[in-house]
Specification:
Blueprint: E1 5-6, E2 31-32, H1 35-38, E3 50-52, E4 58-59, H2 61-67, E5 74-79, E6 85-91, H3 95-112, E7 123-125, E8 131-133, E9 141-147, H4 152-156, H5 158-167, E10 173-179, H6 183-190, E11 198-200, H7 204-209, E12 214-215, E13 217-221, E14 227-232, H8 238-249
Parallel strand pairs: 1-12, 3-6, 9-10, 10-11
Antiparallel strand pairs: 2-5, 3-4, 5-6, 7-8, 9-13, 13-14
């Protein structure tokens, strides 16, 4: 299996010479945030942040929203003196990110082709040793999360995922987290980090079965066991898309 890739901020941006940015320039005093700084912050409402192009010019909201879907540029978050995320700014992709983006786009194409198809069956043992067979969950909506302990984007989305699990408590929905790591590593991780999905350790073979190459990856199955959502990467709207798909399959 290929080395797992943690995909963060793959909602990237495209700059063209025809952009009509506002004249306000990037403010001094803001601190660029690293991935480690974003850990534990939970959901960032990116649409309510000031957005700047690579030259530091302020972008209009609709313009920024459009650019975030074009996958040509990356962006960095910036915080004010209080530590609150206040803005993001476009930047050139690194060579590593360009390679990741190419792999990501190829993976997205493969996953898109699987929408509407029967999910491949598998069996796995959860942390308590209970055996679960996917085909036996038909009749319920099933949300599957592929992840691993060292995946920072996976951890960053967990607070939102936990809220979603709580939202559908008592509903006909199963939340399954398939981890690459061994049981011991998951147990140690769980001592410090809350993740409310049902955890299944040591599931590399299932990730291979589903051709997962980037993390996190999410898959939502309908009540007939068919794939209705399949996507990789962590972005501002990832969990919202999963939530909306589950609600739709449950009848609103």
């Amino acid at each position: 299996m290929k080395t797992p890739i943690a995909i963060a901020s793959l909602v990237v941006l495209f700059m063209t010479s025809g952009l009509h940015a506002q004249t306000k320039t990037f403010p001094e005093g803001l601190k660029k945030l690293e991935t480690k700084d974003l850990m534990g912050m939970g959901k960032i409402d990116i649409d309510n942040l000031d957005a700047y192009d690579i030259n530091g010019n302020l972008l209009k909201r609709k313009e920024a929203q459009k650019l975030r879907s074009s996958m040509k540029f990356g962006f960095d978050y910036y915080a004010d003196d209080s530590g609150k995320v206040a803005a993001y700014r476009l930047r050139e992709l690194t060579e590593r990110e360009k390679n990741m983006m190419k792999m990501f786009q190829e993976a997205q194409a493969r996953m898109a082709a699987m929408i509407g198809t029967e999910a491949k069956d598998f069996e796995a043992l959860d942390m308590d040793g209970n055996n679960v067979k996917l085909s036996e969950l038909k009749g319920k909506v099933v949300a599957i999360n592929f992840w691993f302990v060292g995946c920072k984007p996976c951890i960053m989305e967990m607070p939102e995922l936990n809220e979603m699990v709580e939202k559908y408590h008592g509903k006909e929905v199963e939340f399954i987290a398939l981890a690459l790591d061994k049981k011991e590593s998951i147990a140690k991780f769980s001592e410090k980090t809350r993740f409310d999905y049902d955890l299944f350790p040591g599931t590399k073979e299932i990730a291979t079965l589903y051709e997962v190459s980037g993390y996190p990856t999410h898959c939502v199955l309908d009540q007939e066991g068919k794939i209705q959502l399949f996507k990789s990467g962590y972005g501002p709207t990832t969990v919202q898309e999963i939530d909306e798909k589950i609600a739709d399959l449950l009848g609103g």
